[in-house]
Amino acid sequence: MLIGCPRETKNSEYRVGLTPESTEELVRRGHEVWIEAHAGLGIGADDERYRSAGATIIEEAAQIFERCEMIVKVKEPQPGERQQLREGQILYAYLHLAPDPEQTAALVESGVTAIAYETVTGAGGTLPLLKPMSQVAGRMSIQAGATALEKVNGGRGVLLGGVPGVAPGTVLILGGGVVGFNAAQMAAGLGADVTIMDNNPEALERLSLHFESRAKTRLSNQANLLDALTRADLVIGSVLIPGAATPRLVTREMLSCMQPGAVLVDVAIDQGGCFETSRPTTHEDPTFILDGIVHYCVGNMPGAVARTSTYALNNMTLQRALKIADLGWKEAMRQDPHLANGLNVHAGRVTYPAVAEELGYELLPIKDVLA
After folding, report:
1. Average pLDDT of the segment spanning 94-102
2. In 3-state terms, what secondary structure has residue 343?
3. From the candidates 96, 295, 336, 346, which is the catalytic residue?
4. Which of 284, 299, 314 is the last residue of a domain?
5. N vs C: which end of the chain shows fewer Cβ within 10 Å?
């Protein structure tokens, strides 16, 4: 199979879809890999490193989109890239379609077969391709929030760990999944006063046993949420419904009960965000202040630590990419139902239930595609 990896074009996105090591594995299995020139510079991999791995360096991304059978990316295709996708081509990347009707319409119109990293499943309903970036984003959310709390950035001027004689900052984490767990680890490690909220009692029990006295847990309901918001210096939004738009847990009205200069970090912004007042921001301009509350809503947080993120991602995406390339996407999905759950769009139809429901498309069941 001819596999292409273009340079990422999203604002401040330094990750790359294939590392040189992943490229070498694909080439070793008999596949041809085209890498856009300078695509790997953000992770410290120059074109010569990719050449030595067996890749062909392509100067223009247009050639990759025109010729390659499978496109491997990190982030969703940007508007200029969507126009170059074509019928029968495989797109393998993060997509986050439910809150993005424009991208979904473009993928449907293109006829591409779009496989979304974030909906590929694992044993027990896990999301193995989403997990590494959730780990990174969870850890980064605390350092981003700590910076936003500085007075020079509009925050309350609170040091999360405090100092002897002064209370530490208060961190509220909404959602006890992978992002929330990693955020709690970082916040507790700094010495902050940490509370994790979730609506799943079993998750709260697991978190309580792990963190013991280093973090508190509370059941997520309206009364508890309002109470916790009044005390919080930093709120991390880490709620996830796989493939679907995130529920808006914190309304604009609720901001009035928060302390001026408190910070909201919306890690769920790729799926629409869990704060009503969230809107996507960039690494170049990461925050805005609304009703006295600092909002940090960068959609590609892990892109700032591109080398760590790219290698963590490739650890999980490569084996599926090899399976798709070796067998073809349809046979690979017949053999691996977990991979099949990654199929979001195919030949002009939406195939993922949550996306179809959210955006009003008629669903084409994956089982019918594979029949």
Report:
1. 96
2. strand
3. 96
4. 299
5. C
The CB density around residue 192, as the number of other CB atoms within 10 Å, is 26
* Domain final residue, candidates 254, 283, 299: 299
Considering the domain architecture, whether residues 196 and 268 belong to the same structural domain is answered as yes
Of the listed 233, 270, 295, 336, which one is catalytic? 270
100 tagged catalytic? no
Active site annotation includes 227: no
325/44 Cα distance (integer angstroms): 26
User: Is the residue at 127 inside a domain?
Assistant: no
**Token code pair at residue 53:** 């791995």
Count of other CB atoms within 10 angstroms of residue 208: 15
Q: Is pLDDT of 214 > 90?
A: yes
- Residues 290 and 319 placed together within one structural domain of the fold: no
- 267 and 177 share a domain? yes
Q: How many residues does the chain have?
A: 371
Q: At 212, phi and psi to the nearest 5?
A: 50, -120
Which CATH number does the domain housing residue 172 bear?
Answer: 3.40.50.720
Query: How far apart, in whole angstroms, are the C-alpha atoms of residue 19 and residue 40?
Result: 7
Report pLDDT digits (tens) over 225-281: 999 999 999 999 999 888 788 899 999 999 999 999 999 999 999 889 999 999 999
